[in-house]
Specification:
- With 330 residues, this protein is of the alpha+beta class.
- It is built from four helices and 13 strands.
- Strands 1, 2, 3, 4, 5, 6, 7, 8, 9, 10, 11, 12 and 13 form a 13-stranded antiparallel beta sheet that branches.
- Strand 11 and strand 12 form a beta hairpin.
């Protein structure tokens, strides 16, 4: 019986020891993915901010500017693209809506971001765009890969329609989470005018016809939870200018928007809670279960060897009683 039990324990030990790396290196890359129907919104604020008054073409300080950013999964488009891409694809229809202190629209930029559900790498397909302009992204946008590394990444900048390195600047603690801090600086760059302008009658075509151009610069900061690759906080020191032409007084330049943009505190708290719960699920597949199975396999192997060793010991014979010596008769 001991021999049979040791063989059963040995079989289970081999099974769990083999399951440990299989779960981490085979199952996890296939199971961990962004759902195609995900929806999230976020509110960011700049307090105070500088904003252009298009009536006078002069910059003025305002108490706040709000940026509402929404990401909506487009399931129909993702299923369509998956048929030819041959992999799991997520399509996010994003919208950045900037509003002044009176609630009126300052600018509005839609995006369609198409990416691999597992790796977050861009997938190039019809419909990939920023503000109606076709683009071909390189690098990441909005989200880092699962198990983010301590290194620089290429990050897509929607304003300039180009990618540039976003630099890893170290590990920090944010709301009790260990996070990786990243920075990206986009120097002054000429960028397209938004298709939707804040004043009726002013269009990108009329601005360009007047010889006026739009320029932009930003310092982008992200606090990224590395297990999930999800940013738990984001900030930007953002500046936009209109330069030259007949619209700008004296043909010089005027600030269109400037401010330090931060996530609203209630959205920071909600994001941290959401990411914390997702982090537990990822750790279950990458750490807790693989290490647990490995330890369990070692324990079962030890028990199997102990039973086998006991089964091989020779059985003890009971001691025979001393027999009296026979005395031979003469």
């Amino acid at each position: 019986m001991r021999r049979k039990a040791s063989l059963v324990l040995l079989a289970f030990a081999v099974f769990f020891a083999a399951l440990s790396p299989l779960l981490r290196w085979y199952a996890f890359p296939r199971l961990a993915k962004i759902p195609p129907n995900q929806y999230q919104d976020m509110v960011l604020e700049a307090r105070p901010a500088t904003l252009l008054d298009y009536g006078t073409m002069k910059a003025r300080q305002v108490p706040e500017v709000s940026i509402v950013q929404t990401l909506k999964g487009n399931v129909e488009e993702s299923e369509r693209i998956e048929k030819t891409a041959g992999r799991d694809v997520v399509v996010w229809d994003a919208l950045s809506h900037i509003a002044g202190p009176d609630g009126k629209m300052v600018s509005q930029i839609p995006e369609r971001y198409i990416f691999d559900a597992h790796t977050q790498e861009p997938v190039h397909a019809t419909g990939e765009m920023v503000d109606g302009d076709p683009v071909r992204r390189t690098g990441i946008e909005f989200k880092w890969p699962f198990l983010t590394e301590r290194r620089d990444y290429d990050y897509f900048d929607a304003q300039s329609r180009t990618s540039a390195p976003i630099h890893y600047k170290g590990t920090r603690t944010f709301h009790g989470l260990d996070v990786y801090y990243f920075e990206q600086t986009i120097p002054w760059t000429k960028v397209p005018l938004p298709k939707k302008m804040p004043v009726q009658g002013i269009t990108p075509q009329s601005v360009e016809k007047a010889g006026t151009t739009r320029w932009y610069s930003t310092k982008r900061m992200f606090w990224v939870e590395p297990v999930t690759g999800a940013p738990v906080n984001g900030e930007e020191t953002h500046r936009e200018e209109l330069r030259g032409g007949s619209l700008v007084p004296g043909g010089g330049k005027v600030t269109a928007f400037a401010g330090h943009v931060k996530m609203r505190p209630d959205y920071v708290a909600a994001t941290v809670d959401l990411v914390t719960s997702q982090r537990r699920l990822v750790l279950l597949l990458t750490s807790h279960l693989p290490w647990g199975f490995l330890v369990l396999g070692a324990v079962l192997l030890t028990l199997s060897l102990l039973l086998e060793a006991r089964g091989r010991r020779p059985a003890r014979n009971p001691a025979e009683p001393d027999r009296p010596e026979r005395v031979s008769s003469a």
